Amino acid sequence: MTSATSPSGEVVTTDWADFPAHAGVDGEPLLEYPDQAELPDRAREIIAGISLAIESESGLTPTPLQPEAEWFDDTRWHAQSGNGYGGQSMLTTVNCCELQSESAPDPRTWHAVLGAASDAAIEVGLDGFVLDEHTSDCNGDEDCWLWSATATDGVQWVYLTIQDGSRDPTGEAARDAKEFGRPLASIAIGYGATVIESGRRDEYVEAMQPFIGQNRPPATTSD
After folding, report:
1. Fewest CB atoms less than 10 Å from the CB: which of 1, 7, 143, 165?
2. Helix (H) / strand (E) containing 88
3. Is it the case that residue 6 has pLDDT exceeding 50?
4. Model confidence pLDDT, tens digit, residues 42-82
5. What are the angstrom distances between the C-alpha of 57 and each of 53, 104, 113, 186, 196?
6. Closest by CA position to 201, among listed 24, 20, 42, 74
7. What is the pTM of this model?
8. Beta bridge partners of 13
9. How far apart are CA 62 and CA 52, in angstroms?
10. What span, in angstroms and rounded, lies between the C-alpha atoms of 72 and 97?
11. 101 close to 187: Cβ distance less than 8 angstroms
């Protein structure tokens, strides 16, 4: 429970067990986003724009690892159970839409590829790609063989990896590629989002009203 004073001076108590999102999610932006049933068209637009930018800049074509018709199958969605406060969440998460090329560009062009992908991400409504901390100082030097980056808007995200395992000085990347039948070098992207479950928008909007404008307290349960 949290308490706050309204503009009229009334003390309002909020039971966070009724929060329809999750302790780790800002539930308000979801009011303006497509729900589970409406999301695929938007997601395909995002993936297509970023993939085209990568292809145009690198000359390489990322191709789907699974049939596109299966990208949003039921097996791709994972409904949240608890909301982190002892109540139930109305959200569900999808991870899908993986594309991968069969080779990687010259490392000296990786900055340009990342920049083109970032421009495309911004064009479709995400922030630009941000390199993970452990790769952020990797500038195509001899010991640089893997970049990973993420573009997000807080609800949707796209990950991007550029790798050339032949440059891994440990040899581990080459061994893994051989063992698992993966390309030694590639550019890969994939998509994810956490949104309102299908058919629950009206219920979510109503349940969200007491929590609009409030700061979320830390989670009280591990779900």
Report:
1. 7
2. none
3. no
4. 999 999 999 999 999 999 999 999 999 999 999 999 999 99
5. 6, 12, 6, 14, 35
6. 20
7. 0.89
8. 3
9. 9
10. 8
11. yes
DSSP conformation letters of 179-221? HHT--SEEEEEEEEEEEEPTT-HHHHHHHHGGGTTPPPPPPSS
For the segment 166-188, what is each residue's pLDDT rounded down to a tens digit?
988 889 999 999 999 999 999 99
Q: One-letter amino acid identity for 150? A: T
Sheet strands (E) in the chain: 2-5, 11-14, 63-64, 77-79, 91-100, 130-131, 146-152, 156-164, 185-196
Q: Is the pLDDT of residue 4 over 70?
A: no
Supply 16's token pair.
Answer: 């966070």
CB of 61 within 8 A of CB of 188? no
Angle in degrees, 0-180, between the axes of helices 39-58 and 110-123, rounded to the nearest 10 = 150
CA–CA distance, 155 with 29 (Å, rounded to integer)? 8
